[in-house]
Write a structure and sequence with these properties.
The radius of gyration is 19 Å and the shape is globular. The protein folds into two domains: 102 residues, no CATH class; 127 residues, 3-Layer(aba) Sandwich (Rossmann fold). By secondary structure, the protein is α/β, with parallel strands linked by helices. Helix content is 31%, strand content 17%. 42% of the residues are buried.
């Protein structure tokens, strides 16, 4: 099926109305796990243990992600296979390495990104790489913030948005950030992940023309309260044009950044 780049995010991969796509991975020996999910007029599929929002891709331009914590391996496999059968992108987030090995063995068409803790399969995806023309800048205050930043960066790259990474440039050594002011000025959207005091967000937003998405992380000593201190700092930023997601929510920041770019 051809693609239309004017469509937002992943909507170009929606199946044509009335079409019936077989499972590209072939028949499943344990298909009873996802056998005949009940359809509803609300466009979700009822698997009893979960109600898969199959209409989210058409409605919002981004598919429902499978949040791995709290789900069994069998449940994740069932949800991923069902999305795959419907020719939708598959995102499994917060997937730990020990679970990722078993999942990718069962579903070899998935690719695991260990730094981002994401397993994904996107129809027709081409790698955008880490060089050449980029649009989104992902920044961290410290090395400990990289997992949240990589979750955002991988989400953007899987959405076909080229990314430039700028890590470990926190305010304790401000010259590290200022050495890359051209990158900040060039970016079309910026994601900043920071723990501890979270002050980096206000500094970046004060230098940038682009919208800034703040990701407070749970990195820090006792009074950082696992990211609450950074969250409150970012929420009270005196630099306008800052959007804030939840603590460690790199995936949400990546989706928002991609939506901002696709709306242009």
């Amino acid at each position: 099926m051809g693609t239309d780049r004017r469509l937002p995010l992943f909507q170009r991969f929606l199946p044509r109305r009335g079409s019936d796509h077989p499972d590209p991975a072939g028949p499943d020996s344990d298909a009873v796990i996802v056998a005949a999910p009940r359809r509803s007029r609300s466009s979700f599929l009822d698997l009893k243990f979960a109600k898969l929002d199959a209409g989210r891709l058409r409605r919002r331009g981004f598919p429902e992600a499978i949040f791995a914590p709290g789900k069994s391996l069998e449940q994740i496999i069932a949800l991923a296979r069902l999305l795959r059968r419907r020719r939708q992108p598959v995102f499994v987030t917060r997937l730990q390495p020990e679970q990722a090995g078993s999942l990718c063995e069962a579903l070899p068409w998935l690719t695991y990104f260990p730094e981002a803790r994401i397993a994904a399969a996107v129809p027709g995806r081409r790698s955008v790489g880490r060089t050449g023309r980029w649009r989104a800048l992902v920044v961290t205050a410290g090395t400990g913030d990289i997992p949240a930043a990589e979750e955002a960066a991988a989400t953007l790259e899987l959405s076909r948005v080229p990314v430039r990474r700028l890590y470990d440039v926190g305010v304790a050594g401000l010259d590290r950030l200022l050495a890359h002011r051209r990158w900040i000025a060039r970016a079309e959207v910026i994601v900043v992940a920071a723990g501890m005091d979270g002050a980096l967000v206000s500094v970046v937003a004060g230098l940038a023309r682009a919208p800034v998405i703040a990701v407070p992380t749970s990195i820090g000593y006792g009074a950082s309260y696992r990211g609450i201190a950074a969250l409150l700092t970012m929420l009270n930023s005196c630099s306008p044009g800052v959007a804030l997601v939840n603590i460690d929510n790199g995936f949400g920041a990546g989706v928002l950044a991609a939506q901002i770019l696709r709306a242009r």
